[in-house]
What does this fold into?
Amino acid sequence: MKILITGGAGYVGSACLRYVAEQGHEVMAYDNLMMGHRQAVDGHQLVVGDIADTDLLTRTLKEFGADAVMHFAAATYVGESVVNPELHYRNNIVGSLSLLNAMRGADVSRLLFSSTCATYGMTAADTMSETTPLDPFSPYARTKLAVEWMIRDFAQAYDMGFTLLRYFNAAGADPDGRHGEDHEPESHLIPLVLQVPLGQRDQISIFGTDYDTADGTCIRDYVHTRDLAAAHLLAIEATRPGTDETFNIGTGNGQSVMDIVAACEAVTGQSIARALQARRPGDPPRLVADATKLKTQLGWVPEYTDIKDIVATAWAWHRAHPQGYRNKNTPG
Ligand code: UDP
It folds into this structure.
C-alpha cells in the first residue's frame, strides 16, 4: 500500500511512518515542519507543506498514487487549546476539511484519523470503551470530535472508508534509541519529568492534587508509540470504502501523575523533586482505555504493558539526545 501520512514528521506520526515502512508499505510524510522534525522521517519521502494547502495536498496525493491516508497533523496541546482555541479550530477542523477535499480531488478513499480519548466525558466506570458517552472537556478535544463527525459525513456522501483511532497517552521512544519525543515547547508529563534527572529542570510541577483519585492526581493510560503504530497498521489494512470504525488504543492500565514520577525515579535511579500546583484547565481526572474491541476485532496485542518499560525507552532517548533532534530540520 502507498500511505500518505500527514504530520508524518511529528512524534506519533513519524513513529507510525517508520513502523509501517518497516512492515513493507511505501510511505510519504506530509508535514509543515512547524512541530515536526525532518530527521524523524528517517530518510523516507517528505513533502513540506501545510494541510490547509488543498492544491499541494491534492497534487501530492495524485503524484504519489496514494491508496490511503493516515491523518496526524493537528494542534494537540490541551492547555494551549484553552487559551488559543482559534489555533485548534483552524488547524484541526479547517485543516481536516482541506485534507478531505484533497482526498476527494485525488480519488483517495481510505482514511485513518488520530482522534483522542479526550473526546470522552466523565464516567463512573474504571475504563472507557468506544460506547462511553462523549463529552469533550477542552477545545482541543471538541475539535477532534467535530472532525470525527466531519469524516463520517464525508464518507457517507462520497463513498470513503475510515477508521477513527482514539488514543490514550502516547509515550516512549523507538527501542533502537534513534527516535523519540521532541516538542517545542514540551508540555507532556514523561519528558518533563525526565528533564529533572537530566539536569534541565529543578522540579516537576504536579498539576492538581485534589482530584477524586487515590493520590489526588490525574490518571492516564500511557501507551507506547510502537504499540500505537502496530494498531495503525492493523487498522489501515482493515479499512475499505464503506468502513466506519472506531477503536480505542490504550493498555487499560491507569497511572497517576505521582505513579509516573515514581516510575521515572525507578528507571533513572534518581529522586525527582515535585512542586504541587493548581489544576491545569481542561484536564479530565481519569482517562483509561478499554481496548477490548481493538484486541478482539483486529488482534492487537500491546508489547509494552509495564510503565517502567515505556519510561525506560524514553529515558534512553532523552539521555542520548538531551536536546532532542538537535540540528532541527536538517538532514541527519
Ligand atoms: N502534568 C503535570 N505536570 C506537567 C505536565 C503534565 O502534572 O508538567 C499532568 C497533566 O495535568 C495530566 C497528565 O500529567 O494530568 C498528562 O498530561 P500530558 O500533557 O502529558 O498529556 P494529556 O493527558 O494532557 O494529553
